[in-house]
Design goal:
The chain contains six helices and six strands. It has helices spanning 9-22, 47-51, 56-65, 78-86, 114-118, 123-136; strands at 26-32, 37-42, 68-73, 91-99, 102-109, 140-143.
Length: 144
């Protein structure tokens, strides 16, 4: 988990709920009020188990919690985590640029996937920003 990340009792409850429902080890949970969603971080190998057959577990959680549910794979490597955070967009390249103490990453995606990477109202790139700031101290994510 990211340096200095503290989970709220609500986030811990949601993590326990997903674990009870699926048996998946939940690494982290982020409540994103801006987009009315809960983002669960799990091992990339357990994503399909967390989602369930035909999205059954996600649908159940959405009904229980009353928010959108997203599941993202975890990696301790910045480039790989950026790829996971932007799925289903096909990421071609991730570059890290540091200037004046600020860390920006430029993510190059397949041109036909640019809209997917950004998402409706910027929600997918916002998810990537949240996760990459939390785990790697990234200040900005730019989709190229």
């Amino acid at each position: 988990m990211g340096i200095g990340v503290k989970l709220t009792p609500e986030e811990l409850r949601y993590m326990a709920l997903l674990h009870e429902l699926t048996g998946v080890h939940v690494i982290d949970c982020i409540i994103d009020d801006e987009f009315n969603r809960i983002i669960f971080i799990v091992s990339p190998h357990e994503i399909s188990q967390a989602i369930g057959p035909r999205g059954l577990h996600i649908q159940k959680l959405r009904k229980i919690i009353g928010r959108n549910i997203e599941v993202v794979g975890y990696s301790d490597k910045l480039e790989e985590m950026a790829r996971y955070a932007l799925i289903p967009a096909r990421v071609r390249d991730v570059r890290v640029v540091q200037r004046g103490g600020k860390k920006t990453i430029y993510v190059s995606v397949d041109p036909s996937d640019k809209g997917i990477a950004i998402g409706k109202n910027g929600k997918n790139v916002a998810r990537a920003r949240l996760l990459l700031k939390r785990y790697f101290g990234v200040d900005n994510v730019i989709i190229a």
